[in-house]
Design a protein that fits this description.
It contains 10 helices and 13 strands. It is α/β, with parallel strands linked by helices. β12 and β13 form a beta hairpin.
Amino acid sequence: MTEITREIIGVGDLNRTIADVLDKYIGNVWVRGEVSNFKAYDSGHWYFSLKDAEGQIRCVMFRGRNAQVGFLPKEGDLVEVSANAGMYVPRGDIQLNVGMLRRAGQGGLYEAFLKLKEKLGSEGLFDEDQKRTLPKHPKAIAVVTSPQAAALKDVLSTLGRRAPHIPITIYPSLVQGVDAPPALIKALTAAYEAANRGEIDVILLVRGGGSIEDLWAFNDEALARVIAASPVPLVSGVGHETDFTIADFVADLRAPTPTGAAELATPDRQAMLQELDTLSQKMTTRLTQRIDRESQRLDQLSMRLSHALPNPDRMREKAEQLRARLNQSWQVRLNVYQQRHHSWASHLELLNPQRTLDRGYAVILDQDGQAVRDPGSLKTGQVLDLHLAQGASQVELAKVGSLAKNASNE
């Protein structure tokens, strides 16, 4: 085949062909190397290179897969990765698409870690909705660790600085070796009994950093189940920030370090004091504003009251006027009554029979006390009462005769 008849392909086609070859003839491989240029993006994906004395290769580990790693790789870490060899076609870069990553030389332990993590995760021991919130102001704190551990000193120092008022109880335990898991379980059980009595409300499970072998006690299944059964919130602060153990996933909260666990479990004393000062200033301001507002309201009410109530001098003047009007009205009414009395007295005087008698008239009454009006009713021997102006007399008629103008028989 000559150069003229040879098929010409594009760069993209060439890169895809190389990618197919890599996938077909290399596929999934385990590669050991040092981590270089590690970057964790906001998307959750990891990008880094693996290198050794003879070369380097680009790697990518997508979100979802790197969540199973258990630690955050850093520059210079010697790791082993299970990856598919491929090519990033747009740039023509050969890269490893990493599916698993572990520290070099720890393959067996790491696989056991992943299996236990998957098992407990499927049982729901890691579910976020099961995690409890730490109390904002704990009453007492329990610390489970080794009395000889440097981590204990750091924890106590941090607790004393941040919250010296909170009592601390230490539950000693081994934190390394084959005897550590049962010792940790025993210490946690004692702490749980105190928690059930209301003596503590937060537990710190802490240990300093070390290799995966040093921290392996915290990957024990029995210990994980005991941690999950804690009656109060439990904070795990095991190893350094890049170290992850099963205890971290089961605990209510993972701290990057033992010191971080102490900081997460306690309020900052200085911050609390500053918050109290701020609240005090706000209360003083609010109280002053309220007093000023109520004082102004009181002044307004006082002004309204002064306008609503009459002046005392005006009230006295008004009372005098009303009293004068009352006296005047009473005097007018009295004069009217007196005039009427005089008028009635005059009428009565005119109608008084005595006045008629005073003018020389007389009244004759029969024995029944009836006035005698008919002269014809008079008879001889009749006894009559005769009333005159000066008094009354009783008379007996000896003789009855009629006047000439009214002639009658004797």
